[in-house]
Amino acid sequence: MAKSSSPLCDWTPEQLALGKRWVENWRLTGIELERIRAEELRSLDAYRAIELLCFDADYTIPPRAPLPTSGLIEQQ
Q1: What is the DSSP-derived secondary structure letter of residue 61?
Q2: Which residues contact 19 (CB under 8 A, 6 or more apart)?
Q3: Burial (Cβ within 10 Å: 0-12, 13-18, ≥19) of residue 74
Q4: How confident is the model at residue 16 (pLDDT cuts 50, 70, 90)?
Q5: Can you tell me whether residue 63 is helix, strand or coil?
């Protein structure tokens, strides 16, 4: 079995330096993106998110209004 050589063996020192910079930039970008994500989650208004998901529904009139009883009496 032939010994496999590294895919980077043909790269020049400049290409290696650029590759290392590229990897470091993505590492730092990942850290910054995670910080932004965490900040957005902390500032999230749950009530506003529910409002956006449920649209402008009026929960005081049928069919979305709650029933006058839970139905337990009818089940007995």
Answers
A1: S
A2: 8, 11
A3: exposed
A4: very high
A5: coil
Q: Which residues contact 64 (CB under 8 A, 6 or more apart)?
A: 57, 58
As a whole number of angstroms, the distance between CA 4 and CA 28 comes to 32
- Kindly report, residue by residue over 43-62, the tens digit of the pLDDT: 988 888 887 888 777 778 88
pLDDT in tens, 63-75: 878 888 887 877 7
- Rounded Cα distance between 13 and 35, Å, is 33
Handedness of CA 18, 21, 26, 32 (dihedral sign): negative
Residue 26: both structure tokens together: 């993505």
Give the DSSP H or E segment for 45: none
> pTM of this prediction?
0.52
Whole-angstrom distance, CA of residue 36 vs CA of residue 16: 30
